[in-house]
Design goal:
Number of helices: 11
Pfam families: PALP
Bound molecules: 4'-deoxy-4'-aminopyridoxal-5'-phosphate
Number of strands: 10
Largest sheet: 6 strands, mixed
Shape: globular
Radius of gyration: 20 Å
Strand content: 5-15%
Keywords: Pyridoxal phosphate
Protein name: PLP-dependent cysteine synthase family protein
Cofactor: pyridoxal 5'-phosphate
Order of helices and strands: EEHEHEHEHEHHEHEHEHHEH
Structural class: alpha/beta
Distance between the termini: 51 Å
Length: 344
């Protein structure tokens, strides 16, 4: 993207080159300087714009995809939105197979972006023909001229970050970055950015953020897949119940686990103290910073970059709803603004 341009050819020209914003109030009293890479500044409001654009353009370069073809993925989240956006501009059909657990709002949002949505039963196992994995696979096999993005197992997901977010962070910190703190879902962000940074300076610490209920941290420490680590949790996009092949565990120095509750409160705190309206995993990443500071990870002079993956607007019926917070037992009066209803 050329930020000096007055006019852009289309919305895709605005993907990437997101700002690095100094955290002031959230990190007061911490050792070092802290900066957030705010991915909500992408036109689709998340870091997934980068991978959607890169994977689709790579398929075009390889001649696998030509206008009128179909792009398939299994997600109701940010990746689905970004693929739908790129598909509109480039003239592709977009099919998203999603779980029946997905909120009506999310499904409506994808439909608004022209995607065809298959809602698949959430309660069936991944190898059941009705599961969203199997539905996506079948549609891809049946449809000539289709590609299946498969972000958890597609190396291009990592390459997208190696080519864009990695160099951006290196340049924005003039090479002075000492720590990267990033949530790990597919692992695309941490592996791509981490690889770029370690190639520049192997001493930069790459720290992953994982959820309680996910297997990633334990797998990193033991190289064993421990099913007993798996249980339901509320943060979306962070952690996993399987080992994504795109995650490069060798270049990650360590993982920090965060709770649903701390992450929700911390996201609300970022909005109200820094004026940055961010999503649930941004709260998780910031919560990890707090824990790392308490453990003595940082020292004066350190330059720490934390990635805030998406925008708060996607969580209005979750962490930004007092009712939802209360239902989870997360209520906290400190981060709730007063609303007065005027009676007529
Ligand atoms: N935060 C959110 C909101 C996400 O949707 C994702 C992607 N699953 C992540 C963080 C983690 O990014 P990655 O998949 O690159 O590890």
């Amino acid at each position: 993207m050329n930020q000096n341009k007055k006019v852009f050819n289309n919305v895709l020209d605005l993907i990437g080159n997101t700002p690095l914003i100094k955290l002031n109030r959230m990190t007061s009293g911490f050792d070092g300087d802290f900066y957030a890479k705010v991915e909500a500044f992408n036109p689709g409001h998340s870091s997934k714009d980068r991978i959607a654009l890169h994977i689709i353009e790579e398929a075009e370069r390889q001649g696998i995809l030509t206008p009128g073809d179909t792009i398939i993925e299994t997600t109701s989240g940010n990746t689905g939105f970004s693929i739908a956006m790129v598909s509109i501009i480039k003239g592709y059909e977009c099919i998203l197979a999603v779980s029946s657990k997905s909120s009506a709002d999310k499904i409506d949002m994808l439909k608004s972006m022209g995607a065809k949505v298959y809602v698949c039963p959430a309660h069936v196992s991944a190898d059941d023909p009705r599961s969203y994995y199997q539905v996506a696979k079948r549609l891809h096999e049946e449809m000539k001229g289709s590609i299946y993005i498969n972000q958890y197992f597609n190396q291009l997901n990592v390459d997208a970050h190696y080519n864009s977010s990695g160099p951006e962070i290196w340049n924005q910190t003039s090479g002075k970055i000492t720590h990267l703190v990033a949530c790990s879902g597919t692992g695309g962000t941490i592996s791509g950015v981490g690889k770029f940074l370690k190639e520049k300076n192997k001493d930069i610490k790459i720290i992953g953020v994982d959820a309680f209920g996910s297997v990633l941290k334990k797998y990193h420490e033991t190289k064993e897949f421990d099913e007993s680590e798996i249980y339901p949790y509320r943060i979306e996009g962070l952690g996993k119940n399987l080992i994504p092949t795109v995650t490069d565990f060798d270049l990650i120095d360590k993982f920090v686990k965060v709770t649903d509750e701390d992450s929700a409160h911390t996201a609300r705190e970022i909005s109200r103290t820094e004026g940055l309206f961010v999503g649930y995993t941004s709260g998780a990443a910031m919560q990890a910073l707090k824990q790392l500071q308490a453990e003595g990870e940082f020292k004066q002079g350190d330059q720490v970059v934390v990635i805030f993956p998406d925008h708060g607007s996607r969580y209005m019926s979750k962490i930004y709803s007092d009712k939802w917070m209360e239902e989870q037992g997360f209520f906290d009066s400190k981060h709730t603004a007063t609303v007065e209803t005027i009676q007529y």
